[in-house]
Amino acid sequence: MSHSRPRIDTAGRRVRLGRRQLLAPDCRAARTEEVADAVVGLHASDPATVHLAACARLTVPDPADVERALYTDRSLVRLLCMRRTLFAVGAQLAPVVASSTGQAIAAKERAGMITWVLDGAPGWDRRRLAEVEAKTLAALAARGEATAAELAAEVPDLRETIVVSPGKPYEATVAVSSRILRVLAAEGHIRRGRPRGGWTSSSFRWTPGTAFADLPAPPAPEARAALTRRRLASYGPATVEDLKWWTGWTLTDTRRAVAATDAVEVTLDDGTTGLALPDDLEPVPAPEPWAALLPGLDPTAMGWKARDWYLDPDHVPHLFDRSGNIGPTVWWNGRIIGGWAQRADGEIVWRLLTDDGGSEASAAVAAEAARLASWVGEVRVTPRFRTPLERKLSS
Asked: Average pLDDT of 198-214?
């Protein structure tokens, strides 16, 4: 007897997105840790994204709660991991993320840094590099926290510079401290502490160690399978290509991770094969109609490689930069319908690229914009990666 493959249509995927990404108002969370767990990891390349993405999903949006999780309780850990991108993940999940993706990336970062320093900085060899790293860690341990400049004051070798891309229009002079500290952080020896400025600042103090250093890390194959299950629970159904793109794994490792889970193949509306957990095959009840204003690099907007089911391909040139980074987006019931920005005077402005949802959607978006403005207050947010629509709206 033949069994037909389960089907999950686009409407069902959008319902799951609204619920599991905590975007519908009746699905929002009380604490930042719940948000990070729900989306698996918050993009952290742009410091503002962590706060904006978390607060969009909190019942009571408050950047102080995000700072509590990051810097006081240390229940969120910043890791260089999936796709060589910085994420903030829950401390309990951090060993899984480190083993499945972070350790391999850290090894590549170290190899690249060694070549970069030894080839570009006269008088450096592996012994000197090891000594500088040891002195840096000792200085940080003695201080408890320090900026890169403060560490360089105690370890003068960190001040040495290398000219990058000499003779090119984008030639730059870079301190060796930037690469050394990045590698030490990727390996878990140090971590980014509280920034010197507000929550939009990228000028971090460094602190020793990581919150997950003493937790057992599973072997890489087990960690990849565990991360795949977590990913499908929040983002399923997803394709093998979606998982490969998001993790940065090879196709072989991705397929092995999927095979180690109990994922079920399902048919999607475009005829492609998706993967879902076996307890996620039945229809999911739709939440109340919802709108959301999400920041650039939001984990939901960047959650899948194939995005046509929630993003009109005609809108991509307005909402993405040339490197494929998405800017601030406006959502309605599981679809991106526009973009938003903050002007210099603090006003939150937006533009809808489609009239889907009509007046109901417009009113809901206006309410979300007011909600965002109410907690952002006097803070001014400029995305690290500017997109055409964001630039237009903010000018």
From this structure: 82
